[in-house]
Amino acid sequence: MKIRIGISALCGLLDLIPGGFIIKGIVNAVINSDFIYKIGDEAKKFLSDKINKSGGRQNILNLIEGYRDSISLIESLRDKNEWARKIQILNN
Q1: pTM of this prediction?
Q2: Would residue 82 be called left, alpha or beta, if left means φ above 0 and alpha means ψ between -120 and 50 degrees?
Q3: Is the per-residue pLDDT at 42 higher than 90?
């Protein structure tokens, strides 16, 4: 990990060379691709376990209920006929 960070920091010097940003991109891609793959794989495993333990069905039902509430609010606004504000004037 320390080596990756060090090499990425030293690659900053390549910006001073014309076309160095291309070399920098290639070096960073080679160095970081394995690291990013491992992070993605671990995230996939973590989320799969979390959904299996927490019950993915309940999560999906909660999403559907949230969408249903949003759609009913939009429909009530769509069906609203009078958009003027109701102002109550009190006479003293």
Answers
A1: 0.42
A2: beta
A3: yes
